[in-house]
Amino acid sequence: MKYANNQWCIFHALQLARKFVYYMLFSLEKKAYYETMIVFKPLFVYCFLSCFLRFSATLDTLTPSHSIRDGETLVSSGGSFELGFFSLGDLKGRYLGIWYRISTDAVVWVANRDTPLYNNSGVLKITDKGDIVLLNNTSIVWSSNTSRAADSPVLQLLNSGNLLVKDGSGNNENFLWQSFDYPCDTLMPGMKMGKNFVTGQDRFLTSWKSTEDPAKGEFSLRIDTHGLPQLVAMKEDKIKDRAGPWNGLTFTGNPRLKPNPIFKYKFVLNENEVYYEYTLIDSSVFSRFVIYPSGVMGRLVWRDQTHSWETYSTSQVDQCENYAYCGAYAICNANASPVCACLEGFVSRSPKDWNSVDWSDGCVRRTQLECNADGFLKHTNLKLPDTSSSWFNRTMSLKECEGLCLKNCSCTAYSNLDISGEGSGCLLWFGILSDMKVFSQDGQDLYIRLANSELDNITKNRHSSRIRREAIIFASSTLVMGILILGVISYVWKKKQSFKGITRKDYNNEGGNEDMELPIFDMTDIANATCNFSSNNKLGEGGFGPVYRGGQVVAIKRLSKNSGQGLDEFKNEVFSIAKLQHRNLVKLLGCCIQGNEKMLIYEYMHNKSLDTFIFDHTRSTLLDWHNRIRIICGIARGLLYLHQDSRLRIIHRDLKASNILLDDSMNPKISDFGLARTFGGDQTEDQTKRIVGTYGYMSPEYAGHGKFSIKSDIFSFGVLVLEIVSGKRNQGYCHLDDHLNLLGHAWRLWIEDKATELIDKSLGNKCTLSDQVLRCIHVGLLCVQQRPEDRPDMSSVVLMLSSESLLPKPRQPGFYMEKALPKADSSSTKLEPCSTNEISITLLMGR
Questions:
Q1: In the chain, N or C terminus with fewer CB closer than 10 Å?
Q2: For the segment 442-485, what is each residue's pLDDT rounded down to a tens digit?
Q3: What are phi and psi of 123, to 5 degrees?
């Protein structure tokens, strides 16, 4: 690391060396030589000590008498942050910025984000008046425009990542300018986001234009100060989504912001300023909040164990997060179908559009207000409406708030300002109410103004509904005791009949008659859980059929009438996975066989499948390398269990990205065992005339000759590893230069010693230097070799991934060119496609 003050040290050292050589040339006697050493030794020591002391003293500061050039840096006193010049990706622009020293790609602030330098002549200086200036030769590229002058100004990089200009007193509180007042895309601990009402300064986050261009993008996060201040995310000049106002505990639209062991937060609103900030509970932890170029926001935490940033939380992506998605006087419920509903006492403004799932026009009152003959209807667990047209008072009670709203004919709703404790303060709305969302819990109470006649009708309807419910409950309870025994007997009989004929004996030839101990679900319960198989509950569709979400705990796979698969595949999946217990295999909870309906019930995976992340340009940024290597190792452990540690050896035969599901913690789980085959005893391979699987993942010997073994799954695993590393599909991928598929392209880069070019760009530049990433590419190529005997088994793969042992050289992969294969959406079975990218296929080969 170079510093400007080193020039002083170098100059004086050279001067001293010159005098020493001159003296030596004219010293003819040995005695004179020793005398010379005695004389100059203290001078050498003094010179280098002076250099060291000056180096240490100016490590984190800069004065008007010195400057920073391209290639030189400042480092905070604690060593956490560094200030200097940098470039991004393949772009030649040079920027002055601040980054974490533990992760140089984590840039937290950029000075000249809109005016890059295009050479290495940049110079950073602080003037005698205290202005920070960035020069390109002699022209000013960027300046801090410090508001007032100071005596003996000093520029200092603090260990919080904040860059200060202060006077010579050394007091950090008495500063002239700070970078924390001019955020870029990152909110740091101790940084305020909000507005100073006295100076008019507004601090807000603005996304980068792209991952390689820090110029201001189209997304921003700020506190809107119209009415009661609220946190909003903007796309250019329009609100994209809204976290809402602060209610004393959290933002009303983000009840997930709760006390945690990593950071604490506060919201301040007074006559001088409004701001939100967070501070770290443990100062040894590194955490930052970032708004990405795509508009997605996330909090990242540094993990020393993996030397990588881990996503702690991200902004929600359900449709109810879209601002005013349901229009005026309507509420959005992501778990309901339809998601939008008018408030009680309101009807849709455009019934035709409403029935066409266009809710933008919202709702209108069924009965107009009468001002002096109005009342309020209480709604619970809500995200409060947009507060840009609101008024608030901190000292009023809720009862006083109601009275004040009734007196003003323009007041449409009221609520508590602060819900901490027993609640306090008054918040009133004037005009329309929009952007409301209902939560299952942790929402807020809102009292909406209605005409008394409308309130009477709602009260009567609620009373009638309550009476009907009580009557139904009473009638049901009188019948329960009489039919309880009959119901139990009927259930047991139904369970046996529903699973009749599906035994281990039907599946293989081992001669057993072992009934599977698998719960049987009733068709009515499943229909209720999926809202009668509503399209809003549909998660996706595959070769077996559509998959639906049942509440928040189960996923139901329903055999399609148009599916090429049937009872054999259904039984195959049940017997393959019913008794398997491994953390990296999806758990089968039960099934349903009723009439022509055949369904499988699995545990619900909130993050859906792996392909929705790695092949999506936006969501792939949320899948950092730490998560990707954990997913790779998890899949490997799951396959090892299937191939070696389970009671029977199981060949999956359809391993692909869409069949890897991810739970809340991004742990991988192998799913879809409908095409799996079970080997008993010492059997290691088999052959079939009915080839099943997915193009791009099939091994050459299986696709060409119907031969399958554990090495067939190894080939699929290798393809999957290369897809996870590169973020590109093997099937359908074609490089512009060499016209190779992903396997061929990876092989060419490997033999040309350019394997780092395969790495997904969303992982950043840091991963190109990671031995772990290159090791995964190496293992992936070993797994996709042409000959099955050249591929390692899963026990060897797990060992290769978890150790630093030497690996054998890979040979040319199978399906090197893949030019003759059909496109991804082709299939001989005429199945309805479950996605636009891939589908399982079945080929019948002649003898």
A1: C
A2: 889 999 999 999 998 888 877 666 676 666 777 777 777 667 77
A3: -135, 130
CATH code, residues 611-844: 1.10.510.10
Catalytic residues: 654
Bridge pairing between strands 81-86 and 74-75: antiparallel
Query: pLDDT tens across 137-148, in order?
Result: 889 999 998 777
SS3 of the chain: helix, strand, coil, percent, to 5: 30, 30, 40
Q: 646-699 pLDDT, tens per residue?
A: 877 889 888 999 999 998 889 999 988 878 888 765 666 777 767 777 878 899
Who contacts 657 (Cβ-Cβ below 8 Å, separation ≥6)? 609, 610, 611, 614, 615, 720, 723, 724, 729
Q: For residues 815 and 260, what is the distance between their CA atoms, to the nearest angstrom?
A: 50
> Which architecture, in CATH terms, is 504-603?
2-Layer Sandwich (3.30)
* 711, containing H or E segment: helix 710-726
What pLDDT digit, counting tens, does each position of 3-46 carry?
A: 333 443 444 444 444 444 444 444 444 444 445 445 444 444 44
Residue found by looking up tokens 């007193």 in the block:
169
On whether the CB atoms of residues 835 and 610 are closer than 8 A, the answer is no
Single pTM value for the model: 0.55
* Cα–Cα dist 665/301, whole Å: 14
* Torsion sign, CA atoms 212, 213, 218, 222: positive
The H or E element spanning position 747 is helix 742-751
Q: CA–CA distance from 248 to each of 259, 397, 416 (Å)? A: 13, 15, 10
**Residue 162 near residue 181, CB atoms below 8 Å:** no
**Annotated domain spans of the chain:** 6-57, 187-317, 324-454, 504-603, 611-844
DSSP per position, 640-703: HIIIIISSSEEE-S---GGGEEE-TT--EEE---TT-EEE-TT--EEE-SEEEEETTTS-HHHH
Residue located via tokens 């840096």:
73
Question: Identical fold at 504-603 and 611-844?
Answer: no
